[in-house]
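Exam prep: given the inputs below (a chain plus 6-O-phosphono-beta-D-glucopyranose), describe the expected output before reading on.
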Amino acid sequence: MEPRNYWRGGLCVEVSSAPGSLIIFGASGDLAKRKLFPALYSLHQRSLLHETSRIIGIGRTQYTSESFREWLRPAFAGESTRFLEHVEYLAGDYGSAELYQSLDRILEEYEQRSGFPSQRTYYLALPTTLYQTVIENLSGAGMLSASDQEQSWRHLVLEKPFGRDFDSARELDLWLHKYLREEQIYRIDHYLGKDTVQNILMLRFANRIFEPLWNANYIDHVQVTAEESIGVGNRAGYFDSFGLLRDMFQNHLLEMLSLVAIEPPVSFAADAVRDEKRKLIESIRPFELSRLGAEVVRGQYEGYRSEPGVAGDSSTETYTAMRLQIDNWRWKGVPFYLRAGKKLAAKRTEIAIVFKPVPHSIFAPLTTEMLGQNMLVLKIQPDEGMELVIQAKQPGPKLCMGELGLNFRYADLPGGCCFEAYERLLLDAMLGDQTLFIRSDIIAASWRLFTPVLQNWEQYCELHPYQPGSNGPAAAAKLLQADKRAWRA
Ligand code: BG6
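Solution:
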C-alpha cells in the first residue's frame, strides 16, 4: 500500500546549529560511535549542521584525525566524506593539563579563522567517575567561561546518572555549580529527544478538544508503561548497583508523567515548561512508609543473579510498578500507575489515558461496565503513534457494539518515523535551547520523591520473582486489581 500523507499544512521551525564547536570527550567510546556521531551525520545530511561547525573528538585511544574518521565511517548509512570534513580528533589523558591547552589552542585558531562568536559545547560521553577530572581541567584552563564577546558561550552536556539519591544528587549539583551556571548545564534525558515524547505537549496544547477533558472530571486513571525485552546485557556492573527505579523512574517515567500532567506553561520557553514540571513533581503525594508495600511493587527476573557481573545474592530490582497520586486541582483522586522492567515479553513504551465510563447506559441490557472505557494511547515506541479507543456500532444484529481503535501510526507516513533522540538534543545543546534538558530543581524534586522509597523498600516491599519473557510479577497486576482496574495488555 502506498504511504498516505496525513498532514495538511504544517509549520516547521527548524534552525541549523550555530557555527561553533562541539567537543566530545569519550569520542572513541560506544555512545559516541553508536549514537552521537550518527546523529550529527544525520543533522549534516539535513543541512542542520552549520557549514563551518567543528566537531572535535577527544579520547584516550591513540587515533589521528585521519584514522579516527576511518574508524567512524562504518557507523554511517551513506556517503560521509563531506560530513567527516567537520571532524577532528585529539588523543590524550583526561587528567593532563596539556590536553586542554592543545584543545584550547585548536579551538581559538578555529574561532579566529571563522570570525564567529566563540561558542563551545562540551559533551561528556564518559563514565561519571571522570566528570570531576574533565570539569576541573576545563575550568583550570579557563575554558568554562566565555569571553565577554556577545553571543559567546560554553555549554556542558552531561549524561545520567545525576546522583543516586537526594543527598548525592545535591552534592553533585553543588559541586557542578562551583564551575558552571545552571544556564550552561545540559543534563540529558534521551526520552525528551524522542519525537513521540515531544508530541505530548503539542497534542495537549496545540489542540483545543483535549483540554476540557484532561482532568479528574473525565479521566479515570493514567498508565505509563516502559517495558523492555532485553536484560542488563553488558551493563550489569552499573545496573546492579543502581536498579530499575533509579535507572528508569527517576528520569524517563517521571518526565513522561509530567508532560501528560503539567498545567499549560505560559510559553514554550525552556524555563516556562520546566517550571511547570517542577510544580507537578512537587505535587505528587509523598509515599507513606506504612503503605509502601501496597503502593510499590519490586520484582526481579529469574536468572538475574546468574548474569555475568551481578552479585549472586543481589536484591536489585529489575522491575518496578507503583501507584502515584497527584495532589492538585486537576488530578485530585486520579491514580497514575507506572510500570517498567527488563526481560519482559516485548519492548513497549506507552501512555494510556483512560477515561471514566458513561454515567448511565441507555443500551440495556448492556451496562456501563460492559460498554468499556474510552482510552487515548500515546504510543511512544516502538510502534510509534496514537490510538483513540471508542465504543461503536459493529455491523450486525440490532444491538452489537464493540471497542474500536482509531489508530494513527507514524510508520504509515511517507517520511516514516522517527528521528533519533540524540539529533534533536545535540542540535538544541549547540543552539542553547534548554527546554528538553533537565533542570537541577527537577532532579532534586524527583529524588525527594523516590529517596524514601529506595531507603525503605527492602523492609516494606517484598522482591517478587518473575519469569523472563513474561508480563512481570503477578503482584503488579494485583496493584491495579485492588482498585478494580487492569493494566492495558
Ligand atoms: C536508559 C537506561 O536510560 O534507557 C537503560 O539506562 C534502558 O537501562 C534505556 O535500557 C531505554 O531506552 P530506550 O530509548 O531504548 O527506551
